Model the fold of this input.
Amino acid sequence: MEEQKQRRYKKRKMRKGRVFITLLLLLLIAVGVYGYTQYQAGLKLAGNANSAMEVEDFVPDEKDGETVNYLLLGVDTRGEEQSRSDTMMLVSWQKKTDEIKLVSFMRDIYAEIPDYGNYKLNTAFYLGGVQLAKDTITEMFDVPIHHYALIDFKNFESLIDIMAPDGVEIEVEKDMSAHIGVTLTQGVHQLNGQELLGYARFRHDAQGDFGRVERQQKVIEALKNELLSVGNSKNLPKLVGAAQGYVTTDVSSADQLKTVLSMAVGGVEVSKMTVPAEGTYTDQRISGLGLVLDIDQEANKQLLQDFLEGN
Done:
């Protein structure tokens, strides 16, 4: 009698186990189907958006396994085949410590561009695309670059609206509207893609380009928080799909998603730096170029190395 009870108990347990496994499989299939359809929707939405920003083959520097450095370039093509890079950032992901080091390079840095001579740093992209921009920064500051991401500002607006349909929370520190295509008022707001881009590009105040770079860094950190938030997970497949059309990069869609998920699990912190650092440059007027930032290259190289290494 006792043996029959045990057999019945084992059968019930096995049935419950099969039901649980079946439900789990159905859930996984549903998640997979949803992710695939959203990814395809993102691809369709982006279409051929990046066809005007094709770049030559990218030659990365060798990785050390602990740090991955991404060169992030923002351009305002306005239908032109060639344009200067309006935004130049190094995003350094320290995988061991789950930290992001964000470095902004001022576009008016007086730079020696390989094979071309001395120009403003943002001219490197105009002369030779991503590879020349990468080579210029690497040679000037002795920092390896492993991947790149290039995005047109109009496509940036579209990506933001996919990633955050309800907008991205930003504290706007002052009223601003000059030459940014939108009107923003002081206070905390949920900014859509066009408004967020306008906020990041505003520079018509006493701080000029330095203030603009601070706002760009602030936007990147806000986007990181939005991207890795639990509530935003449902938007990730569509975002990755759209990124295939809106962003020109050497990173595959699978690697993009893997990187985002790795950061989400670890919970990354963001540290920020601007090159040139305060007190390491002077304003100079160069014939044919206008006002440039004549920097102490060795001092900035050392400060950058110290920042990336956590010294």
In short: The domain at 51-309 is CATH 3.40.630.190 (Aminopeptidase). Helices lie at 2-46, 123-141, 153-163, 193-201, 208-227, 236-246, 253-266, 297-309. The CA atoms of residues 220 and 274 lie 14 Å apart. The chain has one domain: 51-309.
